[in-house]
Amino acid sequence: MHRLTTALICLLVLATVAPLSAYTIYLKDGSTLIAKEAYRVEDGKALIVLQNGTQTFIDATEIDIERTERVNMGNYGTAFFIDDDGKVVEAPITPTEKQTLTDVAARAEPRASNRSPATRPTAGATEPVDHIMTKGGFIDLTLAPRTPYRDLDIAVEISRFLRTLGLTEFKVFQGTEPLRVFLEMTANSEGTVFRSLEAAADTLVHLRNRYPDQVEELEVLFTTSNRDRAGQFLIDDEMAAQLGDKNTETSTFFIANVQF
Predict the structure, then answer these.
(1) Which pLDDT does position 85 carry in this prediction?
(2) Which of 75, 116, 141, 194 is the least buried, fewest Cβ under 10 Å from its Cβ?
(3) Cβ-contact 223, 140 below 8 angstroms
(4) Over the Cα atoms of the chain, what is R_g?
(5) At 162, is the secondary structure helix, strand, or coil?
(6) Which residues have C-beta within 8 Å of that of residue 102, sequence separation ≥ 6?
(7) Whole-angstrom Cα distance, residue 165 to residue 168?
(8) Rounded to the nearest 10 degrees, what angle do helices 190-210 and 152-164 cross at?
(9) Contact call for residues 213 and 70 (beta carbons, < 8 A)
(10) CA distance 192 to 241
(11) What mean pLDDT is predicted for residues 52-70?
């Protein structure tokens, strides 16, 4: 009876907490990718379909094949299970080393005030769009185009990084300008908005260190599960540093910088 009860609990947790179609890909550097299905290898490249439908690829040699197959064999790569002590625990996901926003920002090199034109996308790389503005005079991100981000490697890195911070309800799009990333994040409570806002700032600092000439700012739109607007922001280096300052309350930052 005990084994039967434990099995039923396990099945209920799996059914209610995580989709059975999720497939966790473990990389040798300790990071993970969450895919809709198992990857396939062609010509040394692992072809991956992310949960939002985006297709990307990485070198197959980067994948920890043994761990990936072992964890997904029971189809609980992103779910929960019952451990030997009868406790409900999350399937193990090993994030990369967590660094605070302040720590990373302190090591970041100052941004050049005059970038070489060669580092920017060409003028014809994206077609101009007549954006609809909010009452406050900002681009209305709820009506902005949802275009896949132009660099799949960066899009995958953003997704991976946000997941290491515990976020899953987000989508990555091309921003309204070539060097902007557009993040659409779902948040149904004040606390979730604040936590996601901090994570977005943390992500910008990470991208500015890793892709300094390809990403400058983040456009962030918060919506509820019912698609109601919950605030939008344009985050740059200075604003990211403010959020990383322990003396800055996220609620105060929200009120001072939210775009209406």
Answers:
(1) 55
(2) 116
(3) no
(4) 20
(5) helix
(6) 241, 244, 245, 246
(7) 9
(8) 130
(9) no
(10) 20
(11) 85
- Which residues, in sequence order, are bridge partners of residue 219? 182, 234
- Beta-carbon contacts of 123 under 8 Å, excluding residues fewer than 6 positions away, are none
Give the list of residues 6+ apart from residue 86 with CB closer than 8 angstroms, or none: 6
Residue type (1 letter), 222: F
Q: What is the DSSP letter of 29?
A: T
Q: What percent of the chain has pLDDT over 70?
A: 70
Exposed / middle / buried, residue 150 (Cβ in 10 Å: 0-12, 13-18, 19+):
middle
User: Measuring CA to CA, which residue among 176, 171, 170 is closest to residue 219?
Assistant: 176
Q: Say if residue 162's pLDDT is above 90.
A: yes
The alpha carbon dihedral of 76, 77, 83, 84 has a sign of positive
Calculate the alpha carbon distances from 109 to 56, 82, 168, 259 in Å: 30, 46, 30, 28
pLDDT of residue 195: 93
Domains and CATH numbers, the chain: 2-90 (2.30.30.100), 101-257 (no CATH)
Cα atoms in the Cβ-side hemisphere of radius 13 Å centred on 195: 15
How is residue 135 written in tokens? Answer: 């009452």
Q: Which residue has the higher pLDDT, 114 or 186?
A: 186
Kindly indicate the confidence band of residue 75, based on its pLDDT and cuts at 50, 70 and 90.
Answer: low
Tell me what the mean pLDDT of segment 52-66 comes to: 84
Calpha distance 139→259 (Å, rounded): 9
Q: Please give the biggest Cα pair distance in the chain.
A: 71
CB 111 within 8 A of CB 119: no
CB 209 within 8 Å of CB 107: yes
